[in-house]
Design goal:
Blueprint: E1 7-17, E2 22-32, E3 35-41, E4 52-55, E5 60-63, E6 65-70, H1 79-85, E7 88-93, H2 98-109, E8 116-119, E9 124-126, E10 141-143, H3 146-158, E11 164-166, H4 172-185, E12 189-191, H5 199-205, E13 209-211, H6 216-219, H7 224-233, H8 241-257, H9 262-275, E14 278-280, H10 283-290, H11 309-321, H12 327-349, E15 353-354, H13 369-380, H14 385-390, H15 394-399, E16 417-420, E17 434-439, E18 442-444, H16 446-462
Parallel strand pairs: 1-4, 1-5, 6-7, 7-8, 9-10, 11-12, 13-14, 14-15
Antiparallel strand pairs: 1-2, 2-3, 5-16, 16-17, 17-18
Helix pairs in contact: 1-16, 3-4, 5-9, 7-8, 8-12, 10-12
Length: 469
């Protein structure tokens, strides 16, 4: 058992009210076990006898952060503690595997330092899948018929998945079958917008979230019908298939960006908002995808990943993403990245629920660390720091139906908190100025967090993993 939940008093701290986007100075927060007991002005809340006092003078308290699009290395010594060390106390894991359910059990019981886990099914893709020639060990499900699609939903529901992860090559008939079976079994579905399915159709079917921004160009083009038909005709023709897919989709996206219709975008985004569907843009991934020149092969955060990740990341960037681009296509992708930021701004203006997520392990996107980068990119897109912070706190809680018990610093909610040395509402980069993390009521002060980071670095140096893990 790791350090158990305690009775804690965080005194004279500025509580960041993420729901209303304001600061509440000189407050005291009392924690008993894994719950927040009291929150209020310090002069009105005495510290009971027997509570451990954490002086919050000059510091800011935010809810624990959520990464809503995560993948993992497969090593429990790497990902779970690295997330906690970066203040990430909830994650939505987007490619389910049996060991993740064991990680969740052990994290919940206190045997493993780790966040709260929301776990997808294995990827459910069409046939042939984009993953069939990729160097990955995780299982995916390729379905070609409606019966196979329904069987996949039944299987993953029985295996304990929290939702069905749908993918790019699903046919319209297969997605309809998944939606129908998922509704029957009361399990949500979320993931990619399939190539041959329109955004409006997926909204009508009840897809809960849409990952990444690849499809928002064709969907908002005044040439939508022609570009939708082009998306449906995409057929990967060199290996790896995913790399070929990226190249073909990129060409369609360039045409879309140059035929963008603000009116069509406004109508679509209003429909998204009205349906309550969420978008997880993963801008930090798009920066690597569209701006491979921005990656740093000497990034010190690589020290926290298993040994062969450096060569795997090189393969991802040069093989999947950019290796077959012409110079002209390279320029186009750099322009597309700036356009992505404009899409995020438009989604925000329409009131679409935005979720902060990173797509870790897909090439220079790092567990824990990169969530802070994503928040910075949201601000670069035009969100206020307060709004960016909401995308990693209260908005994930609302999306998951957990806002009554997590996502803000309020009485009765779980004690998942991050104590910062500086104000995140003044500068979103201050979410990285972590003094302490409280996860399930357990306090990890700066020394403990540094110990977690040291342990991850040691484990990463000791244990190389196969490419694609």
């Amino acid at each position: 058992m790791i350090n158990s939940a305690q009775r804690l008093a965080i005194t004279h701290v500025t509580v960041v009210d993420v729901i209303n986007g304001r600061s509440l100075p000189d407050h005291t927060v009392l924690i008993t076990g894994d719950r927040i007991d009291r929150v209020g002005p310090a002069d009105r809340i005495p510290v009971p006898e027997g509570f451990r006092v954490v002086d919050g003078t000059g510091r800011h308290l935010i809810p624990g952060l959520a990464d809503m699009h995560l993948h993992d290395s497969g090593d429990e010594r790497i990902d779970p503690p690295l997330l906690i060390a970066n203040g990430v106390t909830t994650v939505r894991q987007m490619w389910g595997t049996p060991y993740l359910h064991e990680w969740r059990r052990r994290s919940d019981s206190g045997e493993l330092v780790g966040p709260r886990w929301v776990i997808a099914s294995p990827i459910v893709d069409g046939r042939p899948s984009l993953w069939e020639d990729a160097p990955v060990e995780q299982e995916y499900l390729a379905v070609g018929t409606e019966d196979e699609a329904r069987a996949a939903v039944r299987r993953v529901k029985g295996e304990g998945a929290d939702f069905v992860k749908v993918y790019s090559r699903l046919s319209p008939d297969a997605l309809r079958a998944i939606a129908d079976e998922a509704a029957r079994l009361d399990i949500p579905f979320a993931g990619h917008l399939p190539d041959a399915v329109s955004l409006e159709a997926a909204i009508d079917l009840g897809q809960r979230s849409f990952e990444h921004l690849h499809r928002f160009g064709p969907e908002t083009s005044r040439s939508f019908e022609a570009l939708q038909a082009a998306m449906a005709r995409v057929e990967p023709d060199w290996s790896p298939k995913y790399g070929s897919w990226f190249q073909q989709v990129g060409r369609i996206e360039w045409d879309a960006a140059n035929t963008h219709s603000a009116h069509r975008a406004a109508r679509l985004f209003d429909r998204l908002a009205a349906a309550g569907a969420a978008v997880c843009p993963t801008v930090v991934l798009h920066r690597v995808l569209e701006r491979p020149d921005s990656v740093d092969p000497r990034d010190r955060r690589l020290d926290y990943l298993p040994g062969e990740m450096k060569s795997f990341y090189e393969y991802i960037v040069d093989g999947f993403y950019s290796g077959h681009r012409t110079p002209e296509e390279g320029f186009q992708h750099r322009v597309l990245f700036q356009w992505r930021l404009e899409v995020v701004a438009s989604l925000e203006a329409a009131g679409v629920r935005l979720l902060a997520g990173t797509d870790t392990m897909t090439g220079y996107v790092f567990p824990g660390f990169s969530l802070h980068d994503e928040l910075g990119l949201f601000v670069a897109a035009g969100l206020t720091p307060a709004r960016a912070l909401q995308t990693a706190t209260i908005e994930p809680a609302r999306y998951l139906g957990r806002d009554h018990r997590q996502g803000s610093v309020d009485e009765g909610k779980v004690a998942d908190l991050v104590l910062l040395n500086a104000d995140p509402l003044a500068d979103i980069a201050n979410t990285q100025a972590i003094r302490a993390v409280i996860s399930r009521g357990r306090l990890y002060d700066r020394d403990a967090l540094d110990g977690l980071l040291d342990g991850v670095r040691t484990a990463a140096a000791e244990t190389p993993v196969p490419q694609g893990a």
